[in-house]
Specification:
The chain is of the alpha/beta class. It has helices at 35-51, 70-76, 83-95, 111-114, 184-192, 206-224, 273-282, 285-288, 291-294, and strands at residues 21-29, 56-59, 98-107, 117-124, 130-135, 141-144, 148-151, 166-168, 171-175, 197-199, 227-230, 232-236, 242-244, 248-250, 256-259, 265-272.
């Protein structure tokens, strides 16, 4: 059984009736290159979330594995039709919850020749069907001298588009991944397309997490007036990688509703769409924006880029 980290619940005074709420569970992992071990930990957390009454459970970026080298990472990558996605489709059905699979190593097109991946965020419904798919568009190519040096683009293909929000039992969800958090344009585009909840499943480094994690999450919530859900990796993965942790849920007013400390575990929070609408009604940012001065941020699909993925063939569940 996994030990739950310390959970901090911080709620602002809202002065309203909470008529429509949905409980979510947001998970924190220390993934390694042992895929079977990672899957067992994720199963346990999903089942804990379901037992608490969560309608949806969120897993972080790289929930499938974090490997010590590019060679190992590519060897462990799978397709959408592979065993990994099949296991999570079965888990969603068995648990009766929706799942946000926050970023797995998906074999890219022309895999046998190019050996490059997508960083792919999947939404599964409680029947185990794929309800949404997003491939990470902003890739983490950063060199902070003496602290962080990673080049995601060396092995990862940038996603071709931002996907429209997905309608779920907890609200309309906009899909993003980790480094996307630093680009407010994607959050504003998703909010303008109807998103009520923004997801940023992540594996933030220690250096960048200590400096920017909470300020960025709260900023995205405040400016978009959306709930922000950020499942995170934590701790040591191997000799080369450590993650910051601090899984977090932020409400549309910018208040931190729940967060994890260190170590694997989960925290729970309520999504209240009536409260979201109250915030937007009392401070109508969408109506106040001066599009005549700085244009409109919206989802655009490049020419020849289809707005959705093809349906998967039925897999045994």
């Amino acid at each position: 059984m996994l030990l739950l980290p310390t959970v901090t619940a911080i709620r602002g005074a809202r002065g309203m009736s909470m008529a429509r709420k949905a409980l979510i569970a947001v998970c924190q992992l220390s993934s390694t290159d042992d895929k079977d071990h990672n899957l067992r930990e994720c199963r346990e957390l999903v089942r804990q979330g379901a037992a608490r009454g969560a309608r949806m459970v969120f897993l972080p970026e790289a929930f499938d594995h974090i490997s010590p080298s590019t060679e190992v990472m590519l060897r462990l990558a799978e397709s959408l039709e592979g065993e990994l996605v099949g296991s999570y489709r079965q888990l969603a059905r068995e648990s009766g919850v929706w799942l946000s699979l926050g970023g797995f190593h998906e074999q890219g097109p022309d895999w046998d020749r190019e050996r490059r991946i997508y960083n792919t965020h999947l939404l599964l419904n409680d029947s185990g069907e794929i309800a949404g798919l997003y491939r990470k568009t902003h890739l983490f190519d950063v060199d902070i001298q003496g602290q962080v040096s990673l080049k995601e683009s060396s092995s990862t293909i940038p996603g071709p588009r931002i996907e429209p929000p997905v309608t779920t039992p907890i609200g309309k969800i906009g899909l993003a991944i980790c480094y996307d958090l630093r680009f407010p344009e994607i959050s504003l585009a998703l909010a303008s397309a109807g998103a009520e909840i923004l997801t940023f499943p992540s594996a933030f480094t220690l250096t960048t997490g200590m400096a920017h994690w909470e300020p960025l999450l709260r900023s995205r919530a405040i400016e978009s007036q959306c709930y922000v859900v950020a499942a995170a990796q934590t701790g040591r993965h191997n000799d080369r990688r450590w993650s910051f942790g601090h899984t977090m849920v932020v409400d549309p007013w910018g208040c931190v509703l729940a967060q994890c400390g260190q170590g694997p575990g989960l925290c729970c929070a309520e999504i209240d769409l009536d409260y979201l609408r109250q915030v937007r009604r009392q401070m109508p940012l969408a109506q106040h924006r001066r599009h005549d001065l700085y244009g409109t941020v919206c989802i655009r699909h490049p020419p020849g880029s289809a707005p959705s993925h093809p349906p998967l063939p039925d897999a045994p569940l």
